[in-house]
Amino acid sequence: MARFRTRLALLGSAAALTVGAVVPMQFAGAQPAAAADYQWVALGDSYTAGVIQAAGDPIDYPRDGCERTDRSYPQVIDRDLSGLFDLTNVSCGAATIENVTDEAQHPIGRHLPPIIEDPDYPFPAVPPQSEAVDGDTDVITVGVGGNTLGFADLLAKCPQLGGESGGEGTPCKDALGAGIQARLDKVSQEYDRMLTVLHQRAPKAKILTVGYPTIIPKDTAKCGYGDLTQFGTITQGDLDWLRQDVLEPLNKAIEKPTGTQEAASFVDLYTSSQDHSVCDHTKWVEGFVTLPDQMSFVHPNALGHRNAADHVEEAMLNAIS
User: Measured by CB atoms within 10 angstroms of the end CB, which terminus of the chain is less buried, N or C?
Assistant: First the structure.
């Protein structure tokens, strides 16, 4: 309850700032908008940027290939808390942890040949996302790790293997399971280094690490084999493996990195979204395809981003209280 009182008080302060900016207009004409109280930088991959049509319209013109959308959670929070935070959103679809830390990225836009050819591809490189933070940054949110793990590669390989097996067994686990722990170790190591770099670049900033939502339900019998609005031809056994041995450990690696860097606060999206997986009736994450004809390749829709916004927003308000 105290957290909600804090949020209401801060929102009231933001409203008061807005009113204060309007009153002098009757004496001196139009005045500059009041400066936001806090500088916020949003970092991350496609689960932050939005990317798919079900997460809104693109917000960058001309396009840079990162595919940030207007219903992604940073943009939702920016509207919710207008006047309190000044948002710099440099999240980018397909970003790895190293793309956040210190490696330039070549965005892919919506270029997924042979399925989709993006007419604006190739895009120029964008700088490492950490360059957007500095000594004036108050809050950093970062949601990244899935591409370092190689989750998109698993989503590409598992349906192929599941189709070859006729939907039986755990062909993806059998082929790729032995390498998963090494992938998770890489995520942990690179996450540690990223947090260290962010603390160095923005010493006073509160860092909020954002986890991934529920993608696969506990009851994988909900998922229809061959249904492209869900997981296509990934077998039920492989879906259980992906949930238990890949996605849940990925969130744990983000929540509790192994290094000794300064503290970061974890924002859990997994718990609140457990009844809204790709295979649930009211889904917050789309499957491979969103009807009638949109490629979504397992990304949050606007409902998923709204849920993320609620949790990240509360964490941001608590961080500055």
Answer: N
Sign of CA pseudo-dihedral 247, 248, 251, 257: negative
Contact 284, 228 (CB under 8 A): no
Assign residue 11 a region (left: φ > 0; alpha: ψ between -120 and 50; beta: otherwise). Answer: alpha
Instruction: Decide if 19 is inside a domain.
Output: no
As a whole number of angstroms, the distance between CA 184 and CA 175 comes to 17
Q: Does residue 179 carry a pLDDT above 90?
A: yes
Q: 285 has which bridge partners?
A: 300
What is residue 33's predicted lDDT score, i.e. its pLDDT? 52
Written in H, E and C, the secondary structure of 198-230 is HHHHCCCCEEEEECCCCCCCCCHHHCCCCECCC
Instruction: Give 58's strand partners.
Output: 69
- The 10s digit of each residue's pLDDT in 140-168 is 999 999 999 999 999 999 999 999 999 99
Residue range of the domain that includes 278: 36-150+184-218+248-285+296-320
Copy the structure tokens of residue 89. Answer: 């959103």
Q: Phi-psi bin for 99: left (phi > 0), alpha (psi -120 to 50), beta? A: alpha
**Contact between 282 and 6 (Cβ < 8 Å):** no
The answer for residues whose C-beta is within 8 angstroms of residue 172's C-beta and 6 or more apart is 154, 157, 158, 161, 162, 234, 235, 238, 241, 242
**Of 77, 65, 170, nearest in space to 111 by CA:** 65
Number of domains forming the structure of the chain: 1
Instruction: Take residue 19 and report the two structure tokens written for it.
Output: 């009113």
CA 309 to chain centre: 10
Residue 90 counted as domain residue: yes
Residues in the chain: 321
